[in-house]
Amino acid sequence: MYKICKRYTFEASHRLSSAKSKDCLKIHGHSYKLEVVLKSDILNKDGMVMDFKELDEIVKPIVKWFDHNHIEQGDNVLYNPTAENMATDIIAKIREKTELLCGIRLWETEKAFVEICE
Q1: Which residues pair with 11 in a beta bridge?
Q2: Domain boundaries, the chain
Q3: pLDDT means per 10 residues in the chain (118 residues)?
């Protein structure tokens, strides 16, 4: 089994519609890191799981939507924008473009992340 991983970063603000911490109910921002992991039992004709450039073509438009955006439940977002819900949204969008997806890790802070494994 081969696995590759690429990290992307974006800045975004959000406000949770419900949370234990009152601070999370206020508008605040994070420097997110998104790690995307692909897997395959075989390599393609170029000796790769997937060319990182091809992975960029899948992931960068998703990251671009979040980058320097305010994420709040409402018109553009149908969920409470927790890291878990954002990761669920992101993985669904990546899954539409590739069957090689193994999982993602979305870092909300330097100390906290959510991981979704396929």
Answers
A1: 31
A2: 2-117
A3: 98 92 92 98 98 98 97 87 97 97 98 96
Q: How far is CA 105 from CA 21, 32, 102, 112, in A?
A: 23, 10, 11, 10
The pLDDT assigned to 77 comes to 86
Contact 34, 90 (CB under 8 A): yes
CATH architecture, range 2-117: 2-Layer Sandwich (3.30)
At 90, phi and psi to the nearest 5?
A: -65, -45
Q: Residue 89's pLDDT is what?
A: 96
